[in-house]
């Protein structure tokens, strides 16, 4: 098996054992192969964010198996989990989540420094990434000085800064207008394809989903045929 993300029988409930228990994930089986880009479509409240957070090692499941790059996350302590997340997973949110007091270049450089990359190499990689999505000319601007589409493109570069194995994205074109969304999604796909990345990308936008390799649907806590 050459799956970069492999999920088997994943379950998660909130308020477990209490009268207000919500069984959000009821046995998720899902895999993303090397270089594959999978669209995750789901009605609101179906558990999409919960699933992405668990796959991105930001939350833990109550049961089931999850492995990234062939390594199971079962039994990892918090420190190991954080280390694995930093090295192997890139995350893109609906809103850019860039650090407001740092420039675009710094936002893409800093995560690399946190992973022990030397400053010159980190900056060179950051510039190359910004260049490849057409925002190199905004490298010294802070997020507030960038357009929404530029902010998202910088956030994509940040997610790829540490050369992750797996990219996870939650509505990566955010609240951009349809035209900008279309354009910016093209930039994301370019980055992903150039890096040969595996990605799971949640979106409500069926036009964007159709541009990915495969679509899966999350409904009532289970993956159903799309
Ligand atoms: N910390 C929490 N405590 C209790 N319930 C929660 C918690 N987080 C999420 N839920 C509930 O779990 C369900 C799934 O939430 P989740 O955020 O994963 O949905 P979603 O599919 O991402 O929704 P949307 O598309 O609207 O963002 C919802 O009914 C939500 O109310």
TrEMBL record:
UniProt keywords, alphabetically: ATP-binding, Cell inner membrane, Cell membrane, Hydrolase, Lipoprotein, Membrane, Nucleotide-binding, Transport
GO molecular function annotation: ATP binding; ATP hydrolysis activity; transmembrane transporter activity
Enzyme Commission number, as recorded: 3.6.3.-
Gene3D superfamilies in alphabetical order: P-loop containing nucleotide triphosphate hydrolases
Source organism superkingdom: Bacteria
Domain ABC transporter: 5-226
Entry-linked SUPFAM superfamilies: P-loop containing nucleoside triphosphate hydrolases
GO BP of this protein: lipoprotein localization to outer membrane; protein localization to outer membrane
UniProt xrefs under PROSITE patterns: ABC_TRANSPORTER_2
Entries under Pfam families matching the protein: ABC_tran
Any one Gene Ontology cellular component term annotated for this protein: plasma membrane
Protein family (similarity comment): Belongs to the ABC transporter superfamily. Macrolide exporter (TC 3.A.1.122) family.
Name of the protein in question: Lipoprotein-releasing system ATP-binding protein LolD
Provenance organism: Aquimixticola soesokkakensis
Gene this chain is encoded by: lolD
């Amino acid at each position: 098996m050459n799956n970069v993300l492999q999920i088997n029988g994943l379950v998660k409930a909130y308020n477990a054992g209490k009268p207000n228990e919500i069984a959000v994930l009821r046995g998720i089986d899902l895999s993303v192969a090397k270089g594959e880009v999978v669209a995750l479509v789901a009605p609101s409240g179906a558990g999409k964010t919960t699933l992405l957070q668990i796959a991105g090692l930001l939350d833990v499941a109550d049961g089931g198996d999850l492995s990234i790059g062939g390594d199971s996350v079962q039994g990892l302590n918090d420190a190991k989990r954080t280390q694995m997340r930093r090295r192997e997973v890139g995350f893109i949110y609906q809103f850019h989540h860039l650090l407001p007091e740092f420039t675009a270049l710094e936002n893409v450089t800093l995560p690399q420094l946190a992973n022990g990359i030397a400053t010159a190499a980190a900056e060179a990689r950051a510039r190359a990434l910004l260049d490849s999505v057409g925002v190199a000319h905004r490298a010294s601007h802070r997020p507030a000085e960038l357009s929404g589409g530029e902010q998202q493109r910088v956030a994509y570069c940040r997610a790829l800064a540490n050369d992750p194995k797996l990219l996870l994205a939650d509505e990566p074109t955010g609240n951009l207008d349809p035209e900008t969304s279309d354009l910016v999604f093209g930039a994301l796909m370019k980055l992903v394809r150039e890096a040969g990345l595996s990605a799971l990308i949640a979106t409500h936008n069926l036009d964007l989903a159709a541009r990915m390799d495969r679509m899966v649907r999350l409904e009532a806590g289970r993956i159903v045929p799309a």
